[in-house]
Amino acid sequence: MSSTPSSPRSVLVVGGGAAGNAATILLRRAGIAVDLIEAKDDWNATAGSGITLQGNALRVLRELGVWEQVEQSGYGFDAVGITAPDGTVLHVSEDLRTGGDELPATVGMQRPQLQRILIDAVRASGATVRLGVRAESLDQDDTGVSVRFSDGTDGRYDLVIAADGLGSATRAAIGITDRPEPTGMAIWRVATPRPSGLTRTDLAYGGPAYIAGYCPTSESTIYAYVVEANRDRATIPTDSYADEMRSLAKHYGGHWPEITAHITDPAQVNYTWFDRMVVEGSWHRGRVVLAGDAAHCCPPTLAQGAALSMEDAWVLTQMLSAGDTWDDALFQAYYERRIARVRPIVEASVQIGQWQLDGVRDADVPGLMGRTMTMLRELP
User: Fold this and answer.
1) DSSP character at residue 98
2) Over the range 287-313, which residues count as b (16 or more CB within 10 Å of their CB) and which as e?
3) CA gyration radius for the chain?
4) d(Cα 305, Cα 228) in Å, to the nearest integer?
5) Which pLDDT tens digit goes with each residue over 314-329?
6) C-beta neighbour count of 192 within 10 angstroms
7) What would the pLDDT profile of 38-48 be if each residue is shown by its tens digit?
8) d(Cα 213, Cα 50) in Å, to the nearest integer?
9) For residue range 118-146, what is the model confidence (pLDDT) as tens digits?
C-alpha cells in the first residue's frame, strides 16, 4: 500500500473542525491537493460558547499562520486561580507556557471566532471545500480510495483523513469499533459579558457543582461553566437550560453573581457530557487515517481537546510531506508518535474528574496538572 510522489498527490479530509481545518491548511502549503467535506452546511461557524487554548495549541495555530488573528481576537493570560465557592481566592499559580516562552500560557476565545479564523485560512489555502456533504462509501485498493459522496458525486484519492469528530462515521465505516464513553460528568457552558477585573481563569471546587469556572475570551466577553454529575438529557427540557445552569451558578460568589445575572437565554446555554476514548493499536485502516476527536477524546479538565486534535494534524502532515511513500509503516509511525502523548493526557484529564466523582479530598490535582503541562511543553 504505497504512493510515490511521481504523480500529484490528493487527500480527502472528512470534517471541518480543528483537526480537519489544520490538516487542510498544512497539506495545501505542502502542495498537496485537498478536498475538504463538512456535513454541516454552516461549517459549525456559530456553534459553541468559548474555548481555552493552552500554549501547545497556540504553537500549532502559529504554524498555521493564524496566531496574529487569534491573539487579536482572544484574551491571553498566564495564571489560574483556585477559589472557594464564596469567591475567596485561595491560590493563584502561574501557568507553564507550554507553547514556548514567546507565547502566552493560555488564550481564551469565543469558539465561533476561532472557527471563522480557521475557515478563512482554509479558503485562502486553495483547497476545494464542499459543505453539507458526507462520504457515503469508501472503496480501497492498493493505489488509493474511491469515495462516493452524498451529493451523488465520486472522487479518487491517495489518502482519506477522517477528522469527523467523536461520532465519526468514517471510523465506523473502516471497521474501528471504539466509541466515546461517558465519564460520569457533564458541563453547562454559556458566553456572557466580562465582569470588570476578571482577567484569568478561576476555578471553584465544591458547592452544588463539582467545578464552577470561567475564562475570559475577549476584552468584553467570557465563557462560564459549571460541572455536575451527568443526567439523562431527555429529562432536561432545552427551554429550561438557563434555569438549570442558573440554579447551580447562583451558589457561587466573587464574579459569579454578575455572571449569573446574564444566564437568561436557554438557547445560549450548552449542555454536554464528558466523554473519553483512545483508539488503540492503530489509527488507520489501509489508506484511511484518523485524526482529532475521531481518534481520541477527553474531558476538558486540562483544556486539551482542540490542542491534541491540531497536534495530530501537524504531526500527520509533517510526516506525509516528508514521506516518499505513504504506506502502513508511515501511518503506524504516526500512531506510535501520537499515542505516547495522547494516552497520558486523556488519562490525566479523566483522573482529575474521577477524583471528584469519588470524593478524594487529598488528590494531587496541582501535581498531576504540573507534570502534564511539563510534558506538553515538548514538541509533539
Assistant:
1) T
2) bbbbbbbbbbbbbbbbbbbbbbbbbbb
3) 21
4) 19
5) 999 999 999 889 999 9
6) 22
7) 999 999 998 88
8) 12
9) 999 999 999 999 999 999 999 999 899 99
